[in-house]
């Protein structure tokens, strides 16, 4: 058992004197090692001082440049793009409420612009990389879809890259709508299924599950149709689509 020795304690026996010398030697070695380490560190810093400071300064410059770019370039650019979107957005919103030739005219104006402002197409080109530029791709795609320009709609919607709970699956499902109009139901089915599975919510999921089921029925694929319809029944019983599935389940059963 270790024995605590008071300060100033003097060893009396030979064994105690040897133990003291050994302890003092070990302590000296530790301090020597620390001194050598500190000396090596000082030598390293002295030798590589300029490169080290150069790296630190370079990192600081990059950080400051990035912050400056965000503050004085990207933010004003984003604001400018958003301002350009206002007029095109108004045309689009009015088109949704209109019908016939007036609706078509408004969708065209939303794409091409008016009153000195860009339309969605020019915004996607001139403000690429901004939030408004990405959002313009979605609206341009939907506008072309309503105008019957299905290939153009697919191009814009396929390029839309925004992580949004509603718009992301809506864009994917709208590509399916365009393929249906192009008489390519197999491709449409794949996009409807992707749209249904991209997010799980009460709006887009049952909406595209039903579209996938109806498309599968038209392709004489009863098993796929039943799978999608039963998912609506089990997971989204309160959705609008749930009230329509019995008719389609009957159709799928006979395939």
Question: What do you see in this structure?
Answer:
The protein has 11 helices and 2 strands, in the order αααββαααααααα. A two-stranded antiparallel ribbon has the order 1-2. The N and C termini lie far apart (88 Å). The protein has 255 residues and is mainly α. α2 (49-97) packs antiparallel against α3 (100-112) and α3 (100-112) packs antiparallel against α5. Helix content is 77%, strand content 2%. The model is unreliable at 1-9 and 69-73 (pLDDT under 50).
Give the helix/strand class. mainly alpha
Gap between N and C termini: 88 Å
Helix-strand sequence? HHHEEHHHHHHHH
- What's the number of helices? 11
Basic shape: flat
| Average pLDDT | 82
DSSP, total strands: 2
Tell me the helix content.
over 70%
* Poorly predicted parts: 1-9, 69-73
Spatial extent as radius of gyration: 35 Å
Q: Looking across the biggest beta sheet, what order are the strands in?
A: 1-2
Strand portion, in percent? under 5%
Largest sheet: 2 strands, antiparallel
